[in-house]
Amino acid sequence: MTRNRRHAKARPGRGTHVRVKTAKGRKLSSTLWLQRQLNDPYVEAASREGYRSRAAYKLAELDERFKFLKKGAKVIDLGAAPGGWTQVIATATGSKNRSASGRVVAVDIQPMDPLEGAEILTLDFLENGAPDAIMECLGGPADAVLSDMAPAMTGHANTDHLRIMAMAEAAFEFAKEILAPGGVFVAKVLQGGTEQNLLAEMKICFATVRHAKPPASRSDSSEIYVVATGFRGNE
Predict the structure, then answer these.
(1) Which of these CATH numbers, 3.40.50.2300, 1.20.1090.10, 3.40.50.150, 3.40.50.970, describes 54-231?
(2) Catalytic annotation on 188?
(3) How does residue 218 score in pLDDT terms, banded at 50, 70 and 90?
(4) Cβ neighbours, 10 Å, residue 209
(5) Is residue 6 scored above 70 in pLDDT?
């Protein structure tokens, strides 16, 4: 991998497979999760490249395909912690190196370590007054609102699906309030039927709505990403 590109693009190889034995007091599910992490090339790549999470490569791959992150853009990263997406955004917009007028605001209810090129707000974007506070920090309407938010999973497929879709819908409503005309909205959704209702609403508000599953998204996950461009504004 090289750093002279717009942002990192993972091309991880396959190393030796690591097997993890179940330890006393550790659940089987935890053992399987640990084994998957140890054998995940994107986890290893993130550690090597200095990214805070493997999710950074999902955003990098989406932008490589759709090219929605622009130099000088004002971008909001919802559910930003621990900051993998924020790192990619800061590099792409130029805010990290102050090479352009881009601004990045990372929002999460969880505290997040400082990150060069980003303003960090520890708050719930659904609170009264949150959109105004975020827009003030951003310096005006956003050119892009991005969300990789996901709730804590219960293990019950239908419940988890409804919960993550509710978060995507909330992010969409927020984006409509804070996006500038022509703006971009990107969010994680789950395949399974209910995402069609959200897509139909988005097609009314945006010129183009597409969805994709980046290579960094695990094949056994039902997550996909919706990418909406050309916000029509709140007519």
Answers:
(1) 3.40.50.150
(2) yes
(3) confident
(4) 19
(5) no
